[in-house]
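Exercise: predict the fold of this chain.
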Amino acid sequence: MFTGIVEELGEVVAVEDLGDASRFRLRGPVVTEDAKHGDSIAVNGVCLTVVDIQSGEFTADVMAETLSRSSLGALAPGSRVNLERPMALGGRLGGHLVQGHVDGTGAVVERKSAEHWEIVKVSLPEHLNRYVVEKGSITVDGISLTVVDAGPDFFTVSLIPTTLALTTLGIKQPGDPVNLEVDVIAKYVERMLAGGGGEPGRTEDREGRTGPEGVK
């Protein structure tokens, strides 16, 4: 579990094509300082498993499913990436609950600069628009952000100078892809409402009779 507070702007060092997967080597001295084999690190919002660590760099395998559903397939040596270690139990939840499970990809549509912040408009896939609401939370490339405006096929976020300087959103240009993860709480609420809102642990048969879960 992550919080969407990026710890470090890392860099892709190498990408190895494994046929049905890719092996990434990434530079991130901050996130690797206490990491070990098998730990998780979020890369542009995608939870990856550390395979190897050497001199401030780590290696992670990315399967075809992840490459097709996220923007990681577009990364190349030299690409900058947002890095975050999992939240420690008892730590402060600075952003919001982020799983590192990308729901889809969008793209930067436009950027508008103000004196002390910048508004970025991002395209939104149709299957995700019902989860995005004004002043709600969304994860963009692993960054926990507050939605300023939500439309049928877009949303906007307001970025402070720190976010612009320390994350990939400071360098993304119109047309560049971004990974999106919607608030997991919204998805659970939708699932429960679709199920009829019955008591937890109880099921309902076709005639509407209820009983213990698994018993009809």
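Check your answer against the key: Residues 146 and 198 are 32 Å apart (CA to CA).
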